[in-house]
Amino acid sequence: MIQQIVFILIAAITFFFAFKQYSKIVRNIRLGKSEKISGNVGDRIKNVALIAFGQKKMFKRWIPAIMHLFIYVAFLFTQIELIEIIIDGTFGIHRFFGDKLGALYNVIINSIEFLSVGAFVATIVFLARRNLLKLPRFTMAEMKGWPFKDGNLILIGELLLLMGIFSMNGSDVVLQQVDPDHFKNTGHLLVSSHLGPALFGGLSESALHLIERSGWWLHIMVVFGFINYLPHSKHLHIFFAFPNVYFDKLQPRGEMSNMPEIMNEVKSMMGLTEGGDEEMNEDIPEFGSKDVFDLSWKNILEAYTCTECGRCSSVCPANVTGKKLSPRKIMMDIRDRADVIGNNLDSGSEEFKKDKSKPLNADNYEDGKSLFDSITKEEIYACTSCNACVEACPVLINPLEPILEMRRYDILTMSEGPSDWLPMFNSIENGGAVWQMPDSRDQWAQDFNSEKA
Amino acid sequence: MRIKTIAEYKNEGKEPEILFWVGCAGSFDARAKKVSAAFVKILNAAGVSFAILGNEESCTGDPARRAGNEFLYQMSALQNIETLKSYEIKKIVSTCPHCYNTLKNEYPKLGGEFEVVHHTQLIQTLIEDGRLTIEGGKFEGKRITYHDSCYMGRVNGEYEAPRSLLSKLDVDIIEMDRHKSTGLCCGAGGAQMFKEDEPGDKRINQDRVEEALEQSPDIVTANCPFCITMLLDGIKGKEKQEEVMVLDLSELIVEANNL
């Protein structure tokens, strides 16, 4: 009875704080510009099935894909056990599904055990990749400090979960012999039927009970911990990968987003608008993205979805030749900036009000900082727009878009940018070609024709 | 066949099959002008009636747009769309993947809807339709590798047309480690062609050329004028220009067919 009350209380607190935290993330995503992304529901569902659920893009690299698949499928299957744990914990019963599902129960538990062994091996390899092998994509500059710890904490948490499962199941198997009324027969278990007797065989009944309960509580407490830890972690991809893939823009990769306000202004300059000049906006306009407020909400969702695997940066031509640009860092910086603004808004502090007479909110916010404080111009101007990062991301994150939006801000709003580009801009504007040339554009054709003649 | 402008066609009251979008590189860059000429020879050999815009063509605006200068992009693009519309152009072929991408994927939002193909795609169609035959065997024994341009490959998903042309030439392509969707950029895109690199360990084209040279090729083939410039520069940097040639796919065909 006491266990039940404690469980229900902890579960309630867990979900209360989780709800608050996830609401904050949704609010932070909405700091971005609203943009309607809809239509093509069929294609979207197909993408979610193949890319998010089916992990299609992971399989460009087979070995990590298979190891990741073990952890992922183990996670999916364990949800069934998790539901059982929540039911058991709430109603003070033991293995609720045990006699409800019949033979299927044994299949499920065995699947979880099999996958958990795979997940265990994968977790150890993943820890080794980060800490012993020090794979370049896990040790780049942006991975120092918290991101490095975060990666390890998640993996250690996974090991704890597995410890919980196997001590729970192992002691259960032994207890099934001692107290068959309470401990329902689960049938032969792939791992625990061997591991249980080997580890816990011969222990007293009270010791076995203690181990079984500890395993149970360890498992569920790590899960509860995870739920509240994820909002602060790269590991949020386990939830966000799905909406992120669903809301992919589904436009040609080679199409940069159009800027209708500039198009219309140019059209009216060129006399192309129908029905006379449109009225011009009298405010000094700001173009491109200076801060998360000027990005699309989708860019921010992508930033929260990023699990910092670094596939993008490991194929970025600028990054692999030693330039400062790392597409992963761009996404991490956007997320960090959204977090900072979110926290500042929650503080309600006067200092963040743009207009002190009005209440603090996203439209009335100023902290004197922007994305340019963490993302340098050196980074955004090193991009070749080659789309290797876009191609590499397993969950359809597009780091190129914010890079190009920041270029737009710097060039259009600030009139800055690399001075090397000025001759090119001038040539296009005055001569219609990227180079200033003395020849006419058709000279090559004239030469060709006279050669033929 | 001499090269005619669309205005000349119009004056004759005729309509060409396709418009050849030459691009800035194809019009002005000494190396890329040879590719333009090679492609024209192929079009003539296949009996394709084509026109160029000539002096009415201007930059598509791609480098301006990717540099962040949307204003300049819109000015270039809208002007070109007006010109193309005034001649009632329906189909365009380009030897430049950047022009191709902008014409195909970006002009529609500005009201310019055209059917756009890359020259490697058009040549493939000409072969399929029996209008062009490629003589194989010319490159027997040559080691040939192919560099995917980002804007035909990853961006527009065209990996096969260029490879199929090479196989028609009886070439066994020696692939670099990074090819097709993982092909490394030459370093020119995103308007990098027009500025100095940011500080780093090496230039991107150097990295790519080192990878190409690992295959000890006689010829490095490409399908983009900017890639060709970058690869040539990188190979010159390694002082290999006497041994390794950098050629556009159309130039291989011209050589094979003695056009």
Model description:
The complex is a heterodimer of chains A (453) and B (259). By secondary structure, chain A is mainly alpha-helical. Chain A has 2 domains: 215 residues; 146 residues, Alpha-helical ferredoxin (Fumarate Reductase Iron-sulfur Protein, Chain B, domain 2). Helices cover 60% and strands 0% of the residues of chain A. Chain A is built from 19 helices and no strands. In chain A, helix 11 crosses helix 14. The radius of gyration of chain A is 28 Å and the shape is elongated. In chain B, helix 3 crosses helix 11 and helix 7 crosses helix 8. Chain B is built from 11 helices and 7 strands. By secondary structure, chain B is α/β, with parallel strands linked by helices. Chain B has 2 domains: 122 residues, 3-Layer(aba) Sandwich (Rossmann fold); 124 residues, Rossmann fold. In chain B, 56% of the residues are buried. In chain B, helix 10 links the parallel strand 6 and strand 7. Chain B is globular, with a radius of gyration of 18 Å. A 4-stranded parallel beta sheet of chain B has the order 2-1-3-4. The chains are: A mainly alpha (453), B alpha/beta (259). At the A-B interface, helix 10, helix 13, helix 16, helix 17 and helix 18 of A face helix 2, helix 3, helix 4, helix 5 and helix 6 of B.
Number of structurally distinct domains of chain B:
2
Rg for CA atoms of chain A = 28 Å
Amount of helix of chain B:
40-55%
Compressed to H and E, one letter per element, the order of chain B equals HEHHEHHEHEHEHHEHEH
* First-last Cα distance of chain B: 13 Å
Biggest sheet of chain B: strands, sense, closure?
Answer: 4 strands, parallel
In terms of quaternary structure, the protein is heterodimer
Q: And the CATH topology of the largest domain in chain B?
A: Rossmann fold
CA-atom Rg of chain B in angstroms: 18 Å
Q: Which of globular, elongated, flat, extended, rod-shaped describes the shape of chain B?
A: globular
Counting helices, strands and paired strands, the structural category of chain A is: mainly alpha
| Average pLDDT level of chain A | 95
Q: Share of helix among residues of chain A?
A: 55-70%
Question: What number of domains of chain A?
Answer: 2
The secondary structure category of chain B is alpha/beta
Second-tier CATH architecture of the largest domain in chain B? 3-Layer(aba) Sandwich
Which blocks of ≥5 consecutive residues of chain B have pLDDT under 50? none
Number of strands of chain A: 0
SSE run of chain A? HHHHHHHHHHHHHHHHHHH
Of all protein chain pairs, which has the greatest interface, and how many residues does each chain bring to it? A-B, 69 and 74 residues
